[in-house]
Write a structure and sequence with these properties.
4-stranded antiparallel sheet, 51% helix, alpha+beta
């Protein structure tokens, strides 16, 4: 075991941290209030090579390892969950899925411009009646000559109004249930496609989230990702990558809660001393630190399995579950440390608390991951080798 970051990884962390301090921190409160971030931030992320940090150089990426992606997500969420979400969706759910399942033509046409940051990718799985129960989705893709006709709706889709490409899941044969789901690469400009942002979100307000609509969209047969009926496997493999980035981001949120709380502990005095001197406040700080360190170990362990090209569904599930729970608790404690001021947007911790709830729900609720972990231990769940694995990092 080696717990040291490489010099390249440490330089990456410093680069992203400086970017967050300069390009996000001064403006995020206003972006959160207005519900809209400056789109130039995404362009700047692309300029730094962060939109394809773990994609091989031959496909337009930076060629770094999967734990480097975790570092990027951790530092971005320290600024705000919206920007980590953008990288999670674009890189984790979409681009890494193309890297794992796409043929060479698909990689050249879609993965290369996404890895370079010239195009943005998103992920369309969730529907109004299908979340944890993926088999309940109603979107269909009917084969007609050289096309599939796509009809349906997706909801809670990050980057719904800004992404260029979408990885969309639909039934090609509903009688086969899970084995009748297929995956498609869909372009925004195609006739019959539309999107609509969701207003009034509790948190992650600076991020674009909403619905996708498909009204007889003609999808060329060349845009079928993998084989017909492999959609469920592709979706679950994609979620392994997405959950990894969400867990890494949760570490960044704990880090942000710690930084804000420590600063406030030194600023605020009660009963003639800094509040950091009070033991029950120290208890909350200590729990944040413990949560951060434990979460990081789980995340980087999952990342190392990815680097080795090994299946990591079990380890990633545990990291996502625990890190997101720790982050939610850290944000709650951060508000408590700040007292009445924590209930105001004068300090960032109320935003951290609002943002921390969504990751406990999306990409597998805490209840889903609890059941998964129990089934692994009890021997009811075993992961089989996929016919296409995420490439090991060399």
């Amino acid at each position: 075991m080696n717990f040291e970051f490489t010099e390249e990884q440490q330089m990456l962390r410093n680069t992203v941290r400086n970017f967050v301090d300069k390009e996000i921190m001064p403006y995020i409160s206003e972006w959160d209030r207005t519900g809209k971030a400056d789109p130039a931030v995404m362009n700047k992320l692309s300029d730094l090579g962060l939109m394809g940090v773990c994609i091989p150089e031959e496909y337009g990426g930076s060629g770094m390892d999967y734990n480097s992606l975790a570092i990027v997500c951790e530092e971005l969420e320290r600024g705000d969950t919206a920007f980590r979400t953008a990288v999670s969706v674009h890189t984790g759910l979409n681009s890494m899925s193309l890297l794992q399942w796409g043929n060479e033509d698909q990689k050249q046409k879609y993965l290369v411009p996404q890895a370079k940051g010239e195009k943005v990718g998103a992920f369309g799985l969730t529907e109004p009646g299908a979340g944890s129960d993926v088999a309940a989705l109603n979107t269909t893709a009917t084969k007609e000559e050289d096309f599939y006709i796509l009809n349906g709706q997706k909801t809670w889709i990050s980057l719904c109004d800004t992404a260029d490409h979408f990885l969309v899941f639909a039934y090609t044969d509903k009688s086969k249930k899970h084995n009748g789901i297929s995956a498609f690469i869909v372009e925004r400009t195609w006739e019959g496609f539309s999107s609509k942002a969701t207003k009034g979100k509790h948190g992650i307000r600076a991020g674009n989230t909403g619905e996708l609509f498909f009204d007889h969209v003609k999808v060329p047969k060349e845009n079928l990702l993998g084989q017909e009926g492999e959609g469920f496997k592709i979706a679950m493999a994609s979620l392994d990558n997405g959950r990894f980035t969400v867990a890494a981001g949760a570490c960044g949120q704990i880090m942000a809660c710690l930084e804000a709380s420590v600063n406030y502990c030194h600023e605020r005095e009660t009963f003639g001393k800094e509040i950091g001197r009070h033991q029950l406040v120290q208890q909350m700080i200590a729990k944040m630190e413990a949560g951060l360190q434990m979460s990081r170990l789980l995340v980087y362990r999952a990342g190392e399995l990815k680097n080795q090209g090994k299946r990591n569904t079990r380890e990633t599930s545990l990291a996502k579950w625990q890190a997101c729970d720790f982050a939610n608790k850290a944000a709650d404690d951060a508000v408590q440390v700040h007292g009445a001021y924590g209930y105001s947007d004068e300090y960032p911790v109320e935003r951290y608390l609002r943002n921390s709830k969504a990751p406990v729900i999306y990409e597998g609720t805490r209840e889903i991951h609890t059941v998964m972990q129990a089934e692994y231990v009890l021997g009811y769940r075993k992961d089989k080798q996929l016919n296409k694995m995420l490439p090991a990092w060399e």
